[in-house]
Amino acid sequence: VTHSIPACIGSMTINSKQLDNESPVSIFAVNKCYVTVQDGTFFDGSGFAVLVREGYKVRSDVNITLEFRTTAVHGVLLGVSSAKVDAIGLEIVHGKVLFHVNNGAGRITATYEPKGTNNLCDGKWHKLQANKSKHRISLIIDGNLVQTDNPYIQSTSADTNDPIYVGGYPADVKQNCLTSKSSFRGCLRNLVLTKSQHAEFFDFSRAFELRGVFPHSCPGVEH
Predict the structure, then answer these.
(1) pLDDT tens-digit profile of 86-106?
(2) In this protein, which residues make up the domain named Laminin G (predicted)?
(3) For the chain, what is the domain count?
């Protein structure tokens, strides 16, 4: 077994003596237990998850789907970059969702702005789908489609070979398609990246680095 148990453990005794959970000698990747819990991964706003150690190749086509829940109006959702300018990025900025793509010729952005009293940062679950198909990009939030024109139609491939950063990224890592440095605070679930009909589901408990991220444990009410 190489992964920790996604569970709550309490009232542990050894030789009839109860262990003190409140003041441990050391602690790593352990969060409090919640009275009500939902499926999802909790991001506490201080860190990030890193997926695909050997590097993710976006290239010409990718479809990203996920669900998010937050009360913060800023936060990185996902970024894949390269040492050059090629990259993709998903982020929440001033309560709007932005999907950025750079195929090497310049960054283009699809922006979803909630209308009227609709609010994406209301602590409720919202469905997101971001699609890159060669030079075309689109963003669907809760069934609402946003598309944007791309003047760089000759440039079709985002040549990345770096890890996928979710919920934020380290200060020393370059992300060419993210404007925010704010780590996401809230919950994410059902992250799937699809290429050429091949869907890849990402389990955060199998990420090769987690900071301030707690898989399989999402508080029913944000604390």
Answers:
(1) 999 999 999 999 999 999 999
(2) 39-218
(3) 1
